[in-house]
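can u pls check wat happens w/ S-adenosylmethionine
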Amino acid sequence: MKLKPLLNNASSKLQKLVGDRSLFEARLLLAKVLSVELVDLIREDQIEIAESDEKIFSELVERRLKKEPMAYLLGEKEFFGMRFKVSHSVLIPRPETEDLVHESLDWIKSKRVDSNSARILDLGTGSGCIAISLSKNLPEYFEIEALDRSSEALEVARINAKKLGGANVKFIHEDFNQFEPSQKYSLIVSNPPYISTEEFEDLDEGIRAFEPRLALESGKCGLDDLLLIVARYPQYLLRPGLLALETGSFGQREAIKSRLESQSTVRIWDLNCHLFMEFG
Ligand SMILES: C[S@@+](CC[C@H](N)C(=O)[O-])C[C@H]1O[C@@H](n2cnc3c(N)ncnc32)[C@H](O)[C@@H]1O
């Protein structure tokens, strides 16, 4: 079949799922099958598509119709201006997490963290998107450790570091409940699981059925991992040191703040869904 009718056919199937984005998504999927860039596809709408490619394309369209996220079908997701490989073992990087990276970088630059204290820990690194984005935007002397309990996730993160450049990121297969750092850090950053059991059941099917549950859910109130990190990790911060966390709701941020109220040496600020705690 020629490219144009093939795309139009797929687009009309996808219409009921994604509305106006249907042609765009169909193009992205076909570009992936043909291993070309989107712009090349737009120029070539009269070419004949091989039957074998047509078959692969229609399988991808069928998977999309079952609500599988585009990032898994394409095998990548853009984050902080880079294309990160993703698989079903990792959470798809979210745009809001870029704010966590931006604010952390701003803090590091404002404190003029020097080579003596240039150490960062990323708890629950998943695809490695936070650790690698920090690495790409900081001098090479920064040592970055990135932890995950999922060996499959770390495999993806290592591929991303190799592909995108993150030579100073060391990946560690460890549970952050048990990790015993041998040194202290200027910055500890995390986007941990923070969805409550009840919220998990209400999540969009595309997330619930396809993204790793262990990356999302954290106990009855979604607070188990956040509270553990706040209780356990300040002792591993240099002074000044920043604990930067992505959180779910306003209520979660208030619960964390109330745990730290008695500590006069902590400066706390919110930025959208993130909480920043500077220990002085
Ligand atoms: C919400 S995802 C975040 C992934 C990535 N940092 C991002 O922002 O896209 C949470 C990650 O933490 C990992 N994780 C969850 N609990 C953990 C634990 N106790 N110890 C280590 N890693 C954990 C999961 O495997 C998952 O990769």
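Residues 90-91, 93, 97, 124-127, 129-130, 147-150, 153, 175-177, 191-193, 214-215, 225 surround S-adenosylmethionine (CB under 6 Å).
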